[in-house]
Amino acid sequence: MAKVIIVGGVAGGATTAAQLRRIDPEIDITIYEKGRDISYGNCGLPYHIGGEVEERDQLVAATPESFAERDVTVEIFHEVTAVDPDNRTVQVKDIRNDRTFDAAYDYLILSPGGSPRLIPALLDVPQAFVLHSLEHLDEIKAHIEEKNITRAVV
After folding, report:
1. pTM (2 d.p.)
2. Structurally, how many domains does the chain consist of?
3. Is 153 domain-assigned?
């Protein structure tokens, strides 16, 4: 049985895992995601803040538990820190437990996404946010509710 490791569990990685499972019910699939959440529509994040997408859950297509039901292993808070193509292994850091281990693969799919950056002039502005993940969404929504914000600049 082939072993597939997917680095990144948001749109690209989660979609790839779902498609691989449909193609081959026997393949061994593991997703390593360094963040808290997987399989969400990050393009819809501003629409939830603006109220056009009413429920946060409408943005989430799948969870680690729903992937487990399809026999796909999802490891959140696990960051792939190195790839050894000669030995077909990746080095994985379990962020919560501060341990590192190697995982072998037959096929490696890289879908790590990007990283947002705040404009340097706004680094010290406490009400300046980036919106790139569900964690960011939750922080912004909490700030809006806590401070009763009614206007914003994007």
Report:
1. 0.87
2. 1
3. no
Which residues are within 8 A (CB) of 112 and not within 5 positions of it... i.e. 6 or more apart? 7, 8, 34, 80
Q: 130 lies in a domain?
A: no
Q: What is the DSSP code (8-state) at residue 60?
A: B
Cα–Cα distances in Å, from 154 out to 9, 40, 130, 134? 27, 22, 10, 18
Catalytic site residue from 22, 23, 25, 43: 43
Instruction: Name the phi and psi angles at 69, rounded to 5.
Output: -65, -25
Q: Give the pLDDT of the chain (154 residues) as one tens digit per residue.
A: 899 999 999 989 999 999 999 999 999 999 999 999 999 988 899 999 888 999 999 999 999 999 999 999 999 999 999 999 999 999 999 999 999 999 999 999 999 988 888 788 888 888 888 899 999 999 999 999 999 988 888 8
CATH number at 84 reads 3.50.50.60
List the domain range (segments joined by +) for residue 102. Answer: 3-114
In a domain, 17, yes or no: yes
Q: Catalytic: 43?
A: yes
Do the domain assignments include residue 125? no
